[in-house]
Amino acid sequence: MHTPYKAIIFDLDGTLLDTLADIADTMNAVLLGLGLPTHPRQAYKQFVGDGVAKCAERVLPADRRDAATIEFCKEAFLVRYANAWKKQTRPYPGIEELLRRCHTSQLRMGVCTNKPHEVAVETLHHFFAPDTFEHVQGVVDHLPRKPNPAMLRGLLGHFALNHTQVVYVGDTATDMRTAKGAACFSVGVTWGFRHEHELREQGADLIIHHPRELQHWLGI
């Protein structure tokens, strides 16, 4: 292995897994239950990335974005999503090979996501071998969500590494801001939910269009 980095930390939705269809279909079912307009799946690329509550706020009509309705949608989504998260969700092409290369090269791996922590762990264990990721951090009550860097800094502590030894990989402006907040090298991926220009505007240190490009850059 030629890379000076010791660990790579990934975002989950839009980076490792294409979760868009299951998220969109689940939230649309919640909206239908309230008699509210739904959205095309592709529109959810702009709604997701900042946690379930923020997604609920974004999908609701402007005159229904009160705290009680947002909370209801969030909880209703989580109940439905518990039975829907693996219907159409799949790893992006090339991700499984990238993870194998990282493992073979003894590059430690973790996940930092705005998905609820228990859901994130269950999802990762379903799609990848249980020992793939050394540490996983999803949303919990005592830590602020990304782009606050607290979750990512916590993972650095778990790895016992400093920010110069870790690469953070994600697909949204939120991810790039998170990486910058923790002073980690940021890799923006274009196969996820947002456009390349958004990643560049947020100061991505590297932009890639396929997982194999990260393999080549890391020298693995």
From TrEMBL:
Its EC number is 3.1.3.18. One of its GO terms (biological process) is DNA repair. It catalyses: 2-phosphoglycolate + H2O = glycolate + phosphate. The keyword Hydrolase applies. It is an enzyme of class 3 (hydrolase). Pathway: Organic acid metabolism; glycolate biosynthesis; glycolate from 2-phosphoglycolate: step 1/1. Signal peptide: none annotated. InterPro entries: HAD-like_hydrolase_sf, HAD-like_sf, HAD-SF_hydro_IA, HAD_2, HAD_sf, PGP-like_dom2. One of its GO terms (molecular function) is phosphoglycolate phosphatase activity. The keyword Glycoprotein does not apply. Keywords: Hydrolase. GO terms for cellular component: cytosol. Belongs to the HAD-like hydrolase superfamily. CbbY/CbbZ/Gph/YieH family. PANTHER family: PHOSPHOGLYCOLATE PHOSPHATASE. This is phosphoglycolate phosphatase. It comes from Acanthopleuribacter pedis.
